[in-house]
């Protein structure tokens, strides 16, 4: 298999129907020889999720995921350019149910900022993989978190 270098994307104008793509960051650290995952709450219903958001003009998918990790969780670190996994969910936007597919990129957290753009809107918390997975409603994302091991799942 040939590896291709990720390129920044140019976003087309999207219509109102169809599946939306988002990019997410699986923020992790090794603490006392255990893998921990950083989750954030949603703004509205306060469910635990991974930081994620829409594609960004002139940014690679991994760069967009890293930006979301900073904006939503204050997390900064090294992000993998390889997609770790994909999951789907339905996003409620003004009463419309939008099907979304999220490409997930692993981000090894080096620093957590005390001040970040969405600090007043979200909570963040470190969990072990099993406990993090138990907080997540998406079965696909739960499985990705449970099975995540940076020593075996990342190139």
What are the salient characteristics of this protein?
7 strands, globular, 42% strand, 4 helices, 155 residues, alpha+beta
Instruction: Summarize the biggest pleated sheet.
Output: 7 strands, mixed
- The termini sit apart by 13 Å
Helix-strand makeup class: alpha+beta
What is the total tally of β strands? 7
Uncertain regions: pLDDT < 50 for 5+ in a row? none
Number of helices: 4
Order of helices and strands: EEEEHEEEHHH
Average pLDDT metric: 89
Detailed description of the structure:
The chain is of the alpha+beta class and 155 residues long. Helix content is 21%, strand content 42%. The protein contains four helices and seven strands. Strands 1, 2, 3, 4, 5, 6 and 7 form a seven-stranded mixed sheet that branches. The protein is globular.
Short description:
The chain has 155 residues and is α+β, with helices and mostly antiparallel strands.
Secondary-structure map:
Elements: E1 20-31, E2 34-41, E3 48-49, E4 52-53, H1 61-73, E5 75-93, E6 96-112, E7 124-128, H2 129-135, H3 139-147, H4 150-153
Parallel strand pairs: 1-6
Antiparallel strand pairs: 1-2, 1-4, 2-3, 2-7, 5-6
Helix pairs in contact: 2-3
């Amino acid at each position: 298999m040939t590896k291709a270098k990720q390129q920044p994307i140019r976003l087309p104008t999207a219509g109102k129907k169809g599946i939306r793509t988002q990019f997410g960051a699986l923020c992790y650290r090794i603490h006392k020889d255990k893998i921990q995952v950083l989750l954030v709450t949603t703004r509205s219903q306060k469910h635990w999720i991974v930081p994620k958001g829409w594609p960004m003009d002139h940014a690679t998918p991994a760069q967009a995921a890293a930006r979301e990790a900073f904006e939503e969780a204050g997390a900064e670190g090294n992000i993998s350019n390889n997609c770790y996994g994909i999951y789907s969910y339905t996003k409620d936007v003004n009463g419309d149910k939008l099907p979304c597919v999220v490409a997930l990129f692993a981000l090894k957290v080096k620093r957590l900022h005390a001040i970040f753009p969405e600090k007043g809107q979200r909570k963040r918390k470190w969990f072990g993989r099993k406990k993090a997975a138990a907080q997540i409603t998406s079965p696909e994302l739960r499985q990705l978190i449970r099975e995540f091991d940076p020593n075996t799942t990342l190139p």
